[in-house]
Amino acid sequence: MDHEVTLLLKELETHDVYRLIVNKPSGFHLEPGRHVKLAIDSPELRERARSFTPVSLNADGVLEFLIKRYPDHPDGMTRHISEIQSGQRLLMSAPRGHIGYKGRGTFVAAGTGITPFLAIIRSLRMQGALAGHRLIFANKSPRDVISEAELRRDFGENAVFLAEHDPSSDFRAGRVDRTLLAETIDDFGETFYVCGPPPFTKSVSHQLEELGANPQSLVA
Length: 220
What we know:
Layout: E1 3-12, E2 17-23, E3 36-40, E4 50-52, E5 62-68, H1 77-83, E6 89-92, E7 105-110, H2 115-126, E8 134-139, H3 148-155, E9 159-163, E10 172-173, H4 178-184, E11 191-195, H5 198-210, E12 218-219
Parallel strand pairs: 7-8, 7-11, 8-9, 9-10, 11-12
Antiparallel strand pairs: 1-2, 1-6, 2-5, 3-4, 3-6
């Protein structure tokens, strides 16, 4: 691993998503959308690194992560991360990955798939460049939505929030499908940012291509 960092703060973002703040190493440069590998610095866990995307900006003095606890995952890594306390030392790689800003378009995310886009969205907001972008954000229920207030403020009427279960008046019931995409998007020549569980990403990308999106304009 390239860096050692220390957990400064851990708090709940939703009922099963934790916000973790760690110190930012000297000289660490982060492009919005890139991810890192994190591991807990203990004899039994330091070799079990997993990928997470910082949602903070490069100008921030710390690194912020939003990590969902998956108690049933075989390796239990997110459970271990959710149980650590302030002062715990973590091992972290240099930034990596291909997700980044490629131009005006629509963000389509499911669940924690929003995390690679949060830093991009925050960067656009800081530049005053969010106008003309759109968000489609699907979750199992309203209580699962990450950064809901921030995203509603940023996108306003240019956002569609979906919930499979118990949708309130601020949510559209159901999942992202071809009908929703056709109703919501008026320019399939723009850039599309797609992230979520692999079946979601594959399905949405395929539907976008069927509706006229250029495969080269898909960031997924």
